[in-house]
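Order emerges. For instance:

***
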Amino acid sequence: MKKILSAAFLLLTTFIAYSQCACCAGAGIGSSNGDFNNGIVTLPKGVITAEAFSDFRSIKKGSAPEDDEKLLTKMWINSVAFRYGLTKNFTLSTVLPYVSLYTRNGADAGLGDMILLGTYKVYEHASTSAALQGGIELPTGIQKSSNFDSSTVIVGSGSYDPLLGAVLSSQWGKYNLNANLLYKHTTPGFQKNYYGSLFMQSLSLSYKIKGESAICRATTEIDSTQSNFGLMAFAGYSGEWLDKLKEGGMVDDNSGHYLGLANVGVNLSYKKWAFPIVFSLPIICQMNGLQNSFGYRLKVGVSRVFN
């Protein structure tokens, strides 16, 4: 697995996963699919959420050779995000990551690319809502000489890249079904190199075990006798397609992949706070050329609602 990593890839895969379970990030975080899996695709007008999440990713030992360039063994992506309900149908969000990379010969870290995203609700009937998303990835990510070998660490694309997505959420009783599509079109970045466009898909089913989510508790009248605690469990699938990289006009055949993940998790809420946890395992791992494949992932988050 190469150390030239697109922050949009790293962050967006976190982003969409959390949109399924927590706040952002994914997102959800970043105003993507369904807040806390509770069927809310956009925030109520005037409501703000502040969110932080941490995404740990293991990397398996595979077929990629390790010579002078040291291979990654794990990654840790820590991000902060904010969302604001500009109107009842339109939510603005932003998220900024800090990425840490680890090898057997040391570690390195740096700021990743910032994402700005807008979500506009285009359909709402009964317990079903749909929204469209558009945004841009800003080139705030670093490019630097690594601390562990003579290669270059690039945490970002070095380009302004458009984002386009769609969200669907449907609720019946204590169940909620969420679906999310998100595409990032990568343009030439550092040294005019191409770091791979990204297309992600996710589908999750959640079940409300107890109470209400932090968003519902903050924005609706709740029976005073009801518990301040809420608990939701969910499971689902998420897919990631990353195009091959192109450096110096040459396609890198040892880059790009399709990864399918099985996800399970819970979201615990207390008053206006929420604490999601997601565990993911790869069930489809199609890596191009010689690359080490991804292992398990663990995501945890915390968010606070302000209204």
About this structure: The radius of gyration is 19 Å.
